Amino acid sequence: MYILQGDACCTVSLFADARSQSLGALNKTKFNFYFIFKSLMYLHPVYVMVVLIASIFIIGSWALRVCEIDHQVLNRSYWNSLWLVAITFLSVGYGDIVPYTSCGRAIAVSVGMLGSGCTALVVAVLAQKLELSRAEKYVHNFD
């Protein structure tokens, strides 16, 4: 995971040029994974959230299927694993499909926590997009 973060920091074209590196050095800003993630969330929030949620669904479903394939007949299908991940991610939890192994339970808990975090990010993005601009506030307050 650390290698993936380091590679992402070096390959994002927005921050790889000399101008950005110089400006970052002058302002004592490190171009690490977290700065790039925040910048991308500011520039393209919908795209980043769609990619993040789709990645969690795909990777979580695959990992859950790998953990549960030998121990349960019901979760042998990738679609059943995807269903469990989606329902856990959205905090619905019907209980029709449950993980039986410790590995599967750990993945389900992780997906649930990531779902809560993504929900918080979606709420924050919506709040930012619905906030009035300075000009709109001026027009609204002009009585």
TrEMBL record:
SUPFAM superfamilies: Voltage-gated potassium channels
One Gene Ontology CC term in the entry: membrane
Any GO molecular function: small conductance calcium-activated potassium channel activity
Domain of life: Eukaryota
Listed name of the protein: Potassium channel domain-containing protein
PANTHER family: SMALL CONDUCTANCE CALCIUM-ACTIVATED POTASSIUM CHANNEL
Domain Potassium channel, residue spans: 54-130
InterPro entries tied to this protein: K_chnl_Ca-activ_SK, K_chnl_dom
Keywords per UniProt: Membrane, Transmembrane, Transmembrane helix
